[in-house]
Amino acid sequence: MDGPSYYIPAATMGVALAFKAPALLRGWRDPLLRSVGVLLALAALVFLFAAPPTIAEVNDVTGIPNVSAPLVYCLLSAFSASCLVLIVYWRGGPPEVTRRITRRWIGGYSLVSVTLIVLFVLGDTPRERLRDLDTYYANTPFIREMIVLYLVALTVSGVAMNVMCWRWALQVSGWLRAGLLVIALGFLFNIPYAAAKLTAVAARWNGGDLDGLSTNVAPVLASAGAQFTALGFCLPLACRRLGDSWHTWSTYRRLGPLWRELRSVAVHGDRGVRISWWSPAELLVTQRESDIHDGLLGLNPYFDTGVRARAYDTAVAAGTDPAQAHAEADAAMVTAAVRARAADPDGSVISSAAAAEPSEPTDGPRDLVRMSLALRRSPVVAAAREGATATPPADREQRAY
Q1: What number of other Cβ atoms are within 10 A of residue 121's Cβ?
Q2: Residues 206-233: pLDDT tens digits?
Q3: Which residues of 273-293 are buried (b: 16+ CB within 10 A; e: fewer)?
Q4: Cα distance between residue 19 and residue 40, in whole Å
Q5: Can you spell out the DSSP letters for 205-225?
Q6: How confident is the model over 344-369, as pLDDT tens digits?
Q7: Which residues lie below 8 Å from residue 88, measured CB to CB, with a gap of 6+?
Q8: Which domains can be identified in the chain, with CATH numbers?
């Protein structure tokens, strides 16, 4: 793997961190949000400093041959700890238990990092190795132990993450379970990565040469594992947002029949500002609901509770559940009122209604989506539409909205 193979993932993680920066600054006291920020930063740093060009640059700047080795190993250890901590906070639980578990993971991997640095200082690595340090110094005292320690630490984190993710995945469903399984798969790559490295190192101990496992196979496994892990952490959040957007647009679309039914009644020209079609879906839904309510208010004098009562009885007799029957009855009353309003172009009913005392709605809020769907699908509403008369109710006390 060359430089771009490391820098592209590092840049991706950096962009994700920049995107999260405003939320991180606002909610830095939130342990879960803070863990996400630390994980993204460490992931970016691991890829950045593990790239061979960066390794050479760090060695040149410090003047210490191979000083990048303990730096990258410490970053890998910190990244492993941050993933474990994030899973603990993500899952939640009693605060004291959560804090105790996270402190243990942080403390354990901090000790590993300090030990890695001490072993490097005690060892001797005079010749710079950009890609094959693990096998080249496999028989060097202290450096050998440093290599084995960081590989064991990665293996432990891979096993621990798989155990935690699988246990949690069995208790949840949906996109959260999918994300946990992908995270587990990502950390599963740690095991063959460490096995490939250890096999190559052990071959050196016995006078063999399997360096290709360490220099060619292991980096590919590490990169694949990191990508799967990042995808697993992002998957539940991204899919939840997509699901919310889909639900919002679906609501907007399903309100269409009722909005179109009332379009001739609601007066849009009086509105000072109209929301553009490219506005957020939530605003479009809000405006469509507002237009519908305006139309319902305009039809208020033409509502006939008798039409609604008959439609409700018909729907219930056909086996419709009460909630759906109420929606169909309201839709039937609306479609009849629209036709009554069309038959009164002079607005005589509205003029007489203006002289009466205003009345309050006779029942609670209506399910606009159910009403809208009933306008298009319900035979009860179709019958009310066909049998609607052009004569509005004379009794003002029958107003239903």
Answers
A1: 11
A2: 989 898 998 889 888 887 887 788 788 7
A3: eeeeeeeebeebbebbbebbb
A4: 11
A5: HTT---HHIIIIIHHHHHHHH
A6: 777 666 555 444 444 434 454 678 99
A7: 98, 101, 102, 105, 164
A8: 3-245 (1.20.1070), 259-398 (no CATH)
